[in-house]
TrEMBL record:
<keyword id="KW-0418">Kinase</keyword>
<dbReference type="InterPro" id="IPR003594">
    <property type="entry name" value="HATPase_dom"/>
</dbReference>
<dbReference type="InterPro" id="IPR036061">
    <property type="entry name" value="CheW-like_dom_sf"/>
</dbReference>
<dbReference type="InterPro" id="IPR004105">
    <property type="entry name" value="CheA-like_dim"/>
</dbReference>
<feature type="domain" description="HPt">
    <location>
        <begin position="147"/>
        <end position="250"/>
    </location>
</feature>
<dbReference type="GO" id="GO:0000155">
    <property type="term" value="F:phosphorelay sensor kinase activity"/>
</dbReference>
<dbReference type="InterPro" id="IPR036641">
    <property type="entry name" value="HPT_dom_sf"/>
</dbReference>
<feature type="modified residue" description="4-aspartylphosphate">
    <location>
        <position position="797"/>
    </location>
</feature>
<dbReference type="InterPro" id="IPR011006">
    <property type="entry name" value="CheY-like_superfamily"/>
</dbReference>
<feature type="modified residue" description="Phosphohistidine">
    <location>
        <position position="47"/>
    </location>
</feature>
<keyword id="KW-0902">Two-component regulatory system</keyword>
<dbReference type="GO" id="GO:0005737">
    <property type="term" value="C:cytoplasm"/>
</dbReference>
<feature type="domain" description="Histidine kinase">
    <location>
        <begin position="360"/>
        <end position="582"/>
    </location>
</feature>
<dbReference type="Pfam" id="PF00072">
    <property type="entry name" value="Response_reg"/>
</dbReference>
<keyword id="KW-0597">Phosphoprotein</keyword>
<dbReference type="Pfam" id="PF02518">
    <property type="entry name" value="HATPase_c"/>
</dbReference>
<dbReference type="Pfam" id="PF01584">
    <property type="entry name" value="CheW"/>
</dbReference>
Length: 865
């Protein structure tokens, strides 16, 4: 781990930016391998990452980045042609470096085998055919054999050329202060710095080369408006001053006494500081999206803020100070009024003269307070609104922050499935709340995976259909006054409405008579129901036990909704509509046992009064008939586990009222309804959502808190939790009311595995998860056990003696009684051909042992059995 706290923080952000640029740029380069500007850009990113890693002592990243730089250098010089094999090696290197950077800034072990990664890079065609003698030697720090250039001719040449370069760079910085937006002049300075860098490399002064390269990097960021010149000009001037002394050292041998690492750190820090003071909201094909550091859960720790926005906030805080002084004067005046009133009362009681003088003073002060209080109130309203708007603006980030993550994912999944897919992004500059950026990643990723896995045809199938071999997935973002719209569309096969109906009946989600009354749109919406899947063969790509119902739930949490449209044979489109304000919410305030709770309005289906005679029982559950539909109802106090004494008191208060009807609300999520009986319905109010305290974090039924106008803290209800818990209470009450206890029936799984170690481990996992397990030692034994037992599902290895897993699967499917029996293959065979053979044999799911984990197996079983 990097010991220097400041250096570690700088390295964290600079390396994340370099790695993101390398990955995104490589994706672009695959489309246009002849783009010399982009190749140069990638080469410099690798070079910068290597230099930053050298300064901070992260040897592993430095070495790998140097090797990537070599390969990109060979591509730049046309000594090497970029092919898929080399591209994959570079991608693996980027992934490895990302983990190693994380290790360097957190001290968490990366698990990266650096030697293995370097070997894979060395085994590329580059190492077989190219000579990299002209590249920078691999070093762990600035290792220079001699500070003085020994070769006299080379020394004289470098002396005159470096003096010229320095003179032009120094005078150029002065001119830039007058016109920092002069791109033509910036290009001249960049060319000057590049030449200076190459000259320094040729004379073996690696320290100078690295410093000059950092100057180049800053100038490039100024040119592309990523940093403001005035914010880095002083550091650039200091940098050039240090470079001049180092040049003198190289040509005269006189010690420069320059702390090279400290100088480089200062230049790097200047970029980091400038970057964190502005939001970069632009993208292009060759300038890669600048994104924030994102961990696995995509949590954003920092936001870049334009300095102009900070200036506005500082101005408003100044106005707030003025208003505070005015309020303090009012407080002093109120004290004076109190004193005057006491004096008036005293004089009246003693019949003293001149009481009217004090009354006149009191009247004057009251008039003054009336005016100043009104002014202060108006000013506070204005400042409050301004601060609210500006602070919310600070949370806005471009959607490119998350969109950029999908390019690599689409490439990898498409390649894995032998499909050709192009991802088209539109509206990446659309800005949304930080929370949307954090939480929209997983739903979008799931929809994209589904599109590739379910919707996109193989290149051969597309050509037979008259479509281009390369499919297109488009993500388009736009914004209205109150909503953000994100559309994910593909030109694949579309949704099969008949298959959806068959699946809904098979999964017992709908009856045929209900389907007959549905429109096409209503049928399409069935895919969002829990437990729905048309997929007959599950792999690690899409078969993780997570359906589109989870996507819809996540969208609902973002105050949004999702719709699907499809044209069979032409493609499918998912449209996400999200709210723009996530820090405020409209809620219905409810009272239960003298406690006020807030119910988000997006979950409120209806609120009304219900008489006791309207409540009936159906299958042991309390229900209310509403519009020919039985709505289950329950006391909200029961769900919230409110203290029994408080609930009894509130019930008595209700009984004393003449009105016997109970207020209750119906909440709805998807196709699920639940009625909640409460003590009182108050009113609808817009509230500010407070970050969830660690005290209530993870507490069911509560999603957060707010402060009401009267200063009271109010808990915000979490309807998804309430619906689940409400169903459990109903089920429990039904069971406990029965005289006979119900027997829990465990699903039975046939486990076919020849390895005793694997068989024992998988058996333990399944039994712990609540399954009864019957084991078989190979496929032949599996067939015998299947005939002798009634099972609910099968898990089988593939490579086994006597009868392989594929042969076993084929034999099982020959029997009509077992054609619908869920069957999962677990194997180390990971190729697409192997997976196709598994699907052709009749398996429902295919889990690769290298990617196997307990959660995935159980989720897949839960989805199938």
């Amino acid at each position: 781990m990097i010991e220097d706290n400041e250096l570690r923080e700088i390295y964290k952000y600079s390396s994340a930016e370099h790695l993101q640029n390398l990955e995104s740029g490589l994706l672009e380069l695959e489309k246009n391998s002849d783009d010399e500007t982009l190749i140069h850009f990638l080469f410099r990113e690798a070079h910068s990452l290597k230099g930053d890693s050298r300064v901070t002592g992260v040897k592993s990243v430095e070495t790998i980045a140097h090797k990537v730089e070599e390969i990109l250098g060979s591509i730049k010089k046309k000594e090497l042609i970029l092919d898929p094999e080399i591209t994959d090696h570079i991608y693996h290197a980027i992934d490895g470096m990302s983990k190693l950077v994380h290790e360097a800034v957190t001290d968490e072990k990366s698990g990266v085998d650096v030697d293995k990664l370097l070997t894979s890079l060395n085994n590329t065609n580059a190492e077989k055919t190219l000579d990299f003698s002209d590249q920078i030697p691999e070093v762990s720090s600035f290792s220079i054999t001699s500070l003085f250039i020994e070769d006299e001719d080379l020394r004289d040449i470098y002396k005159s050329s470096s003096e010229e370069h320095l003179e032009k760079l120094e005078s150029g910085l002065c001119l830039l202060e007058k016109d920092p937006d002069d791109e033509i002049f910036l290009d001249k300075l960049l060319l000057e710095a590049q030449t200076f860098e190459i000259d320094s490399r040729m004379v073996g002064r690696e320290d100078l080369e690295t410093l000059i390269h950092k100057v180049e990097e800053i100038l490039e960021k100024v040119k592309t408006h990523q940093v403001v010149f005035n914010e880095v000009s002083s550091r650039l001037t200091q940098g050039l001053s240090g470079i001049k002394r180092l040049v003198n050292e190289a040509v005269t041998g006189e010690p420069s006494n320059i702390d090279t690492v400290g100088l480089l750190k200062g230049l790097t820090q200047s970029v980091a500081i400038s970057l964190t003071s502005e939001v970069v909201n632009y993208t292009s094909s060759n300038e890669i999206e600048k994104t924030q550091t994102i961990d696995d859960s995509h949590h954003i720790d920092t936001i870049r803020v334009p300095t102009v926005q900070l200036d506005i906030l500082i101005t408003q805080t100044g106005e707030l100070t003025v208003t505070r002084v005015g309020v303090n004067h009012t407080a002093v005046a109120i004290n004076e009024i109190a004193n005057l009133w006491e004096e008036i009362k005293l004089r009246r009681s003693s019949n003293a003269k001149n009481v009217h003088v004090y009354e006149e003073k009191l009247d004057a002060i009251l008039n003054e307070i009336k005016v100043t209080a009104t002014e202060n109130s108006s000013r506070l309203d204005y400042i409050s609104n301004q601060l609210n708007d500006k602070v919310h603006t600070l949370r806005l980030l471009p959607l490119s922050t998350v969109f950029v993550l999908f390019r690599r994912m689409v490439r990898d999944i498409a390649k894995q499935q032998g499909k050709q897919v192009e991802l088209v992004l539109e509206g990446e500059k659309t800005t949304v709340d930080k929370q949307i950026i954090e939480e929209i990643k997983d739903p979008l990723m799931h929809l994209i995976r589904n599109a590739i896995d379910h919707g996109i045809e193989s290149p051969e199938e597309r050509e037979l259909l008259g479509k281009p071999a390369t499919a297109t997935i488009q993500i388009k973002a736009s914004k209205t006054a109150s909503n953000v719209i994100i559309e994910i569309s593909d030109d694949g096969r579309g949704l099969d409405i008949n298959l959806i109906k068959e699946t809904a009946i098979k999964r017992k989600l709908c009856r045929q008579d209900e389907l007959d009354l549905m429109s096409d749109q209503q049928v399409y919406d069935l895919i969002f129901l829990p437990g729905f899947s048309t997929r007959t063969f599950i792999t690690e790509i899409s078969g993780r036990g997570v359906g589109l119902d989870v996507v819809r739930t996540n969208i609902k949490r973002l105050k949004g909704n999702i719709k699907v449209n499809s044209n069979p044979g032409e493609g499918c489109q998912f449209s996400l509509q999200l709210g723009t304000k996530l820090s405020t919410a409209n809620v219905m305030l409810l009272e239960v046992a003298n406690i006020i709770y807030a119910l988000p309005l997006e979950y409120l289906y209806m609120s009304l009064l219900v008489a006791p005679q309207q409540i009936s029982f159906l299958e042991g559950r309390q229900i209310v008939q509403l519009e020919k539909q039985a709505i289950p109802i329950i006391e909200l106090g029961t769900v919230l586990n409110i203290d029994q004494v408080n609930r009894i008191c509130s019930l008595r208060k209700r009984q004393n009222k003449a009105e016997q009807k109970r207020p209750f609300v119906i909440i709805k999520i998807g196709r699920e309804y639940l009625g909640l009986l409460v003590d009182d319905l108050l009113h609808i109010e817009e509230v500010i959502l407070k970050p969830q305290s660690t005290i209530v974090e993870g507490v069911s039924n509560i999603s957060g808190a707010t402060i009401l106008g009267n200063g009271e803290v109010c808990m915000i209800l979490n309807p998804p939790d309430i619906i689940k818990l409400g169903q459990q209470f109903s089920t429990q009450s039904k069971v406990t009311s029965s005289e006979d206890s119900e027997t829990v029936i465990k699903p039975v799984i046939l486990l076919v595995e020849d390895s005793i170690a694997v068989r024992t481990q998988e058996k333990r996992i399944l039994e712990k998860a609540g399954y009864e397990v019957i084991t078989a030692v190979d496929g032949l034994d599996g067939l015998k056990k299947l005939k002798a037992h009634q099972v609910d599902g099968i898990i089988s290895d593939v490579e086994m003696p006597n009868l392989t897993g594929l042969e076993f699967t084929e034999e099982v499917r020959k029997n009509s009684d077992y054609r619908e029996l869920p069957l999962i293959l677990i194997t180390s065979l990971a190729s697409e051909e192997d997976k196709k053979r598994g699907a052709d044999a009749g398996a429902n799911a295919y889990i690769v042992k290298d990617q196997f984990n307990q959660g995935m197996l159980l989720e897949t079983l839960d989805r199938l059995v």
